[in-house]
Amino acid sequence: MLPLQRTIDALAKSHNEAATPTLIAALKTDSVEVFDGVVRALCARRSKMGHLAVLRYWDVLTPSQKLIVEKGRCRMGVALREALLDGDDRLFAAAYEFVEASGDYDLTPTLVMVAERSCGERADAAVALTLNLVEQLCRWLAADREPVLGRDPETIRYCVLESLERSVERYRQHRRAELLEAFVVLAGPDSKTLRNILESPYHPCHQSIVQSLTVSVSPNVLGLLTTLFAYRDAPQAVRNVVGKRTDQPFLDALLATPLDSKNVAFMKNLARTKSLACCEANPALLAQLTDQQQAAAMRLLAASGASDDRKLSLADLLIKHGPVEARVAACEALRPIAGQRGNQLVLQALDDAAGEVQAAAVRQLRERRIPGAMNKLLELVESPNEAVSAAARDALWEFRFDNYAARFDLLDDDARRSMGARVALVDRSTLARLRAELSNPARRLRLRAIEMVAAMKLLPQMADALIERLQDEDHVVRVAAADALQHCTADDVRNALLAAIDDRSVAVQTAARNSLRALDGETQLGDATALVEEAAP
Amino acid sequence: MNDLTRLAWPLAEIGDNFPDSGPRLSWSDLWAYGIALLVAAIVAAAVMIVRRRNDMTIHCENPWKLFRELCLIHDLDHPSRRLLASLAAVRRYEQPAQIFLTPAAFDANDLPEDWQARAGHLRRLKDILFDKQLS
Questions:
Q1: Which residues are CB-neighbours of A469 under 8 A, at least 6 positions away?
Q2: Which label site among A22, A290, A485, B69 has the fewest CB atoms less than 10 Å from its CB?
Q3: Which of A16, A25, A26 sits opposite B60 (nearest CB)?
Q4: Is A438 exposed, middle or buried, given 0-12, 13-18 or 19+ CB atoms closer than 10 A?
Q5: Which has more confidence, A535 or A306?
Q6: A14 and A109, same structural domain?
Q7: Which Gene3D superfamilies does the annotation name (chain A) (predicted)?
Q8: Among the ranges A78-87, A485-494, B38-47, which has the highest mean pLDDT value?
Q9: How many CB atoms neighbour CB A447 within 10 A?
Q10: How does residue A524 score in pLDDT terms, banded at 50, 70 and 90?
Q11: Of A165, A186, A207, which residue constitutes the final position of a domain?
Q12: Is the pLDDT of residue A511 over 50?
């Protein structure tokens, strides 16, 4: 070890208190190496006098020397406290800078005391530094305790919060609203003290805290506000603040909160909020919002306890001038609102250029009982836009094959035909289901399937499946299939019917001949008839 | 002290067996014990003082003891210690140990005339106490 280093180490560790004045005297040295060593030794010693002496040199220290001092901060608490509380301006400034640079949370109670007991620059500086430290701590907590600094941030939070809570209790004396804000930020949404204050309008801090929540644009305050509103049973004061605020940072925070119907707390808070100024039908306000935010605003207003008129006004504005996402949200928001104005907006949305908007309108067309809705829906089933078509099919849920099959036997012929045609149009699985029914092991169901094919006027599309039925084991089914095929004009049908003339069942032969005659009648061809005549016994 | 006791007791018992003679040992005969105790106390105190003087782990505020502590750390001989102490006195340092942190103090140019003869010793001491680049 170098000799000077040995001297420094000995002075740093010496049990002789004379080492401190010796080191302090040596601070006047011209040698940088000696100065560095002296600073290191003074910081390593547990001596308030020595630490104060180092702090007096703070403004002339190089960054590396400041780093040396910061490393010894765990032993400098007393000196820093004295510098902050009773030090002259130079010492105060040095201690302030030191705390700012090192983030020494142990000094928060002292800073709070300075902020409370004095006024002027020092108090302002102490308040600013306290807020800084609290924000830093919140960032640390939010970043999942990264970087790891040896101390648990939750423990630090607990200690800092305790001193801020004491300050809140002394609020009548010091009237420092900034300290309340620091408390609010650090207390978080689960603080009982904060909840008590927010729920007690006559609490000395109530007005100040509400004011802070109303005007602060600090991300931590906004985070607290949105958390209280979206994930907790929000006190009336918080709901009022949320209802009033329209500033951009708040809008960004609130509208980024996902609206989940399973989030009971959020839905309950929204339902109890009678007015949301940030979601009013205000073109100037909407112009500041992104497409997603406009949609989110509509969804929030729709879930809120605001009057239907307000919801309709915003929906009207968005359907007319909003982006696609917002128009869809507006359409969906109209769903629970009955009445003529809502109907008009839905019909207006049906003519929208965007398929998603049309689809959103289609989904509520039937439940609104708008005249002509059924025909419109059947028309929209064939829309080239897949979303619209799917929405129309969903709306015409009763025209499903299952439903039709279940009622088929109960329907008269006209009803079978009219409903069958609609089912064939609406339910895309109809052909596949009919094929499955035609192959059903139960004879009765196969026969019924042939009847359904005919009623739904799907004979040309199902010709191949019917031809297969000409080979059915049951002659009654074969007769029915041969009979049904008279409406199919394809060549393979004709050939299949000709083959069926040789069927072992006379009834099938007759039916095949009849069908071939009917086909000839339709196609004016004589070949088949000649063949029929030839084949006749 | 045990030897003294052994010497004193036989004398005290002389004549004890004569009738009506009574004990011959009076208070004035205890001077030997007193002297022995006093010497023991002085020796003990001296030992204590010496031990305490050289025990650097005891908490205290003694500038000269700190000076000695630093001398011990650097293994300085007695002439060097005396020279450093004189230098600290000439430089009028409030804390004599400050000399260990002030390389400039070893420059003999600004010292009185009688120090010039010891300039070489001072230079050697400076080399011992400080890094080469500081010397």
A1: A438, A446, A450, A477, A478, A480, A481
A2: A290
A3: A16
A4: buried
A5: A306
A6: no
A7: Leucine-rich Repeat Variant
A8: B38-47
A9: 21
A10: very low
A11: A186
A12: yes
Q: How confident is the model over B65-96, as pLDDT tens digits?
A: 999 999 999 999 999 999 999 999 999 999 99
Q: Does B121 lie in the same domain as B81?
A: yes
Same domain? For B41 and B67 the reply is no
Chain A's closest residue to B59, CA to CA, is A15
Quick check: bond before A441 cis, omega within 30?
Answer: no
In a shared domain, residues A409 and A513: yes
pLDDT of residue A174: 86
Q: Are residues A426 and A526 in the same domain?
A: yes
Same domain, A411 and A531: yes
Closest CA–CA distance from residue A189 to any residue of chain B (Å) = 51
Question: For the residues B56-66, what does the mean pLDDT come to?
Answer: 91
Domain count, chain B: 2
Contacts of B24 (CB under 8 A, 6+ apart): B12, B14, B15, B16
Q: What is the ipTM of this complex?
A: 0.76
How close B105 gets to chain A, by Cα (Å)?
11
Query: Hey, is B60 helix, strand or coil?
Result: strand
Average the pLDDT over A59-84 and give the result.
Answer: 88
Contacts of A28 in chain B (CB under 8 A): none
From chain A, the residues in CB contact with B62 under 8 A are 16, 18
Higher pLDDT: A532 or B58? It is B58
Selecting from B58, B94, B102 the residue whose C-beta is nearest the C-beta of A21 gives B94
| Domain that includes residue A28, residue range | 1-88
- The answer to whether residues A481 and A470 touch, using CB atoms and an 8 Å cutoff, is yes
Alpha-carbon distance A25 to nearest alpha carbon in chain B (angstroms)? 7
Contact A26 B101 (CB under 8 A): yes
Does some domain include residue A390? no
CA distances from residue A177 to A168, A172, B7, B31 in whole angstroms, order as listed: 9, 11, 90, 83
- pLDDT for B16 beyond 70: no
pLDDT at B69: 93
Tokens 């708008």 map to which residue? Answer: A370
**Quick one: pLDDT band at residue B1, thresholds 50, 70, 90?**
very low
Domain boundary among A164, A186, A208: A186
User: How high is the pLDDT of residue B21?
Assistant: 57
What contacts A460, CB < 8 A, 6 or more positions away? A487, A488, A489, A490
Do A47 and A165 reside in the same domain of the chain?
no
The residue segments making up the domain with residue B76 are 63-134
- With a cut of 90, say whether residue B99 has pLDDT above it: yes
**Contact (Cβ atoms closer than 8 angstroms) between residue B89 and residue B111:** no
> Are B73 and A7 within 8 A, CB to CB?
yes
Can you tell me the mean pLDDT for B127-134?
A: 75
Q: Please state whether A148 falls in left (phi above 0), alpha (psi between -120 and 50) or beta.
A: beta
Say what the pLDDT of residue A495 is.
Answer: 86
Sign of CA dihedral A241, A245, A248, A254: positive
* Cα–Cα–Cα angle for A354, A356, A361, rounded to 5 degrees: 100
pLDDT digit string (tens) for A329-351? 999 999 899 889 999 999 999 88
Work out the pLDDT band at A536, boundaries 50, 70, 90: very low
Chain B positions contacting chain A at CB under 8 Å are: 56-63, 65-66, 69-70, 73-74, 93-95, 97-98, 100-104, 128-131, 133-134
